[in-house]
Amino acid sequence: MSDVNIPAADQSSQGDPAKAPTILIAEDNDVNLKVLEHYLANFECRAIVAKNGKDAVRLFYRNDVDLVLMDIMMPIMDGLEATRKIRTLERKRGGKQTPIVAITAHIRPADQHVCIDAGMNDYLSKPLKKNDLTHRMKIWAPHLHENTPRQPASA
Q1: Rounded to whole angstroms, how far apart are CA atoms 107 and 7?
Q2: Per-residue DSSP letter, 6
Q3: What is the pLDDT of residues 72-83, one digit of tens each?
Q4: Where are residues bearing 4-aspartylphosphate located in the sequence (predicted)?
Q5: Distance between CA 36 and CA 25 in Å, rounded?
Q6: Which of 26, 32, 69, 135 is 20 to 30 A away from residue 3, measured at CA?
Q7: What's the pLDDT tens digit per position in 48-81?
Q8: Which range of residues forms the domain containing residue 74?
């Protein structure tokens, strides 16, 4: 497990990083994780990372998470089982349901139904495309603010 701060394009305009929306990334592949972190750098958020489903459930339980990006195939506990456990925790807490977006190389429509049946809200296929992730972020976490690129100062 690790905690990764996704830097804002303009640190001076960012509020308290501890109050930034939190995204839980459950991904065991280091390359895919780096791609996700790179794409998430476009948003003012804090990312926490789990390398397996068991750690994802533990991190979810210990943190106020705004969005979960969940790989399906992970060691120890897969993303489907982790999602079911997260949904059980939410029911016990009696609180809101956190959006969970599946990220997987399985792209058949039947695979999408398996993800939805497990309690996930949406589905992204690998290899991940930046525009697809950005679109899902705007749907499932509209309160996350996208960093705006700095405009060069005019002379």
Answers
A1: 31
A2: E
A3: 999 999 999 999
A4: 71
A5: 8
A6: 135
A7: 999 999 999 999 999 999 999 999 999 999 999 9
A8: 2-140
Instruction: Report yes or no on 39 lying in a domain.
Output: yes
Residue 60, burial from CB neighbour count under 10 angstroms (0-12, 13-18, 19+): buried
Classify residue 9: in a domain, yes or no.
yes
CA distance 4 to 38: 11
Whether 146 maps to a domain, the answer reads no
d(CA 1, CA 49): 5
Contacts of residues 102-107 at CB distance under 8 Å and 24 or more positions apart, as own/partner, are 102/70, 102/71, 102/72, 103/27, 103/32, 103/36, 103/69, 103/70, 103/71, 103/72, 103/128, 104/71, 104/72, 104/73, 104/79, 105/73, 106/72
The answer to the question of residue 108 being in a domain is yes
Q: CATH number of the domain at 38, please.
A: 3.40.50.2300
Residue type, 135: H
Q: Are 66 and 36 in contact (CB under 8 A)?
A: no
Structure-token match 């809101």, residue found:
96
